[in-house]
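A brief tutorial aside. Many learners find it easier to grasp structure tokens once they have seen a single protein encoded end to end. The record that follows does exactly this for Riboflavin synthase. Read the sequence first, then the structure, and try to relate runs of similar tokens to stretches of the chain.
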Amino acid sequence: MFTGIIEGLGTITSIQSSGQSRRLSLEADFILDNTKIGDSIAVSGACLTAVTLEGKQFKADVSPETLGMTTFGKAKVGDRVNLERALRLSDRLDGHLVSGHIDGTGILKHRKITDNAIIITIGVSESLSRYMIKKGSVAVDGISLTINDCDPYSFSVSIIPHTAKLTTIGFKKIGDPVNIETDMIGKYVEQFVTGKKETGQSSVDMAFLAKNGFL
């Protein structure tokens, strides 16, 4: 579990292919103290497991599923990535609950400077936008952001100078792909409302919500 508050940047230093999977070698810009082999590290939002670790460097395996769902399928040596180590139960939850399980990718469509902020518009499919609401949360390349506005094919976010300076979103260009993780609460609510019991009947329907005072 992560918060979407990026600790720092890192660089992909090598990519090894093995069948349909890959092993990434990465170097963080900061010392990975109190981190051990087997720990989870969100790399541009995708939860990966450190299989080797030495100082600022670690390696992580990327499965075919992850390659297909994220930007890692087109990653190159030298690419900069956002890094966040897993949340500890004693930590403050400064962003929002982020699982590190990427739902899909989006494309940076537009960026506009408004006073001290950069307004970025990202194009997404309807399968992602259905879980987005105005003022809701979204993780873009692992960064916890608040949605300014959204429609079925895009959403916009406001990037403050601090976020632009410390994460990859500050130098992303028009047309660049980004990893998207939608708010997990929306997905759980949808499952509870539309999920089926073994009998084939919906466990929660409109009548149930009305009966219990939710409507």
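Self-check: The longest strand covers residues 8-18. If you spotted this yourself, you are ready for the next section.
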